[in-house]
Amino acid sequence: MEVFKVMVLKGYKRENGTYGIRNHVAIIPASVCASETAVRISNLVPGSVALPHQHGCCQIGDDLKLTIDTLIGLGKNPNVGAVLVVGLGCEGVPPKELVEGISETGKRVEKIIIQDLGGTLGAIREGGRIASEMARELSQQERVEFDIGELTLAIECGGSDPTSGIASNPAVGYASDLLIKNGGSSILSETTELIGAEHILAQRCINEEVAQKLFKIVQDTEDRAIAMGTDLRSGQPTPGNKEGGLTTIEEKSLGCIYKAGLSPVIGVLGYAEQVNEGNKGLYVMDTPGQDIDSITGMLAGGAQIVVFTTGRGTPTGSPIAPVIKVTGNSSTFHKMQDNIDINAGRIIDGEASIQEVGQEILNEMIKVSNGKYTKAESLGHKEFGIYRIGTTF
Amino acid sequence: MHNNGIIAHSKDNVCTIVQELKAKDTIMIKDANREENFHVIQDIPCFHKVALVDIAKGKEVFKYGEVIGVASGDIKKGEHVHVHNVESTRGRGDRK
Question: What molecular function does GO assign, one term (chain B) (predicted)?
Answer without folding.
Answer: altronate dehydratase activity
